[in-house]
């Protein structure tokens, strides 16, 4: 696997990033993320579950969101990849989210995550069957973390304002 440029305009369909996603998932979760023969096009455009990834910065930003995640959260690709990932959580849940991500950093993965997230509109949805894992290549370089969830339910409109986009 070559070095992956997380900030490439072509990351959505990048075969090296796809390989990083699925190989890291297999390593840490010990379960395949995609069927053999699936590829980056399937993961981005047709996967029936949401997949997101953020970088390894101190205040990580999303670098990937497949079409299912974009529909669930209500962000376009360009909006998603400019968003600090902490803004996907309700204000009162951000500290808990940080603890969870720290645990994933130490342990490699967390399976069975359930929690609430915030859509662009400010509406809340709950997600179930979530998995979070480290994105680590064959040389041990950590690119960040990824998450997938296969079940979600709209909850209600929250009082928090929609997540603000960073100034351009």
TrEMBL record:
InterPro entries: MEKHLA, PAS-like_dom_sf. Signal peptide: none annotated. SUPFAM superfamilies: PYP-like sensor domain (PAS domain) (SSF55785). Residues 18-153 form the MEKHLA domain. It holds the Pfam family MEKHLA. This is MEKHLA domain-containing protein. The lineage of its organism: Bacteria, Pseudomonadati, Pseudomonadota, Alphaproteobacteria, Hyphomicrobiales.
